[in-house]
Write a structure and sequence with these properties.
Blueprint (H helix, E strand, L loop, with lengths): L8 H22 L6 H21 L7 H27 L3
Helix pairs in contact: 1-2
């Protein structure tokens, strides 16, 4: 049987506050015309928010090494699928 990790409520409240702040930052950044950097800024904030959710609300931060290996493999697989899809999209002669 594995020992469970008790996370204090203040950690959840801090992560929730960070998610709200990052959501507000997303709205603020969307109001500026950054040209091609709009997508980069929005995706960067989205990745940061997703990381907070995965680490704290899904308890990956306190998980075993196997959980981290599965997370790493899934992120690697996602990047592989996206790169193959983008490679196909870019190589098409429209």
């Amino acid at each position: 049987m594995t020992a469970e990790h008790i996370v204090p409520r203040r950690v959840y409240y801090a992560v929730f506050a960070a998610l709200l702040a990052l959501t507000a930052l997303t709205v603020i950044v969307a109001r500026f015309d950054l040209g091609p950097m709009n997508s980069v800024a929005a995706l960067s904030i989205a990745v940061l928010k997703a990381s907070l959710v995965v680490l704290f609300f899904m308890h990956v931060k306190y998980g075993s090494r196997l959980v981290w290996v599965v997370l790493g493999a899934s992120v690697l697989w996602l990047f592989l699928l996206i790169s193959i899809t983008l490679g196909d999209y870019v190589s098409r002669g429209w």
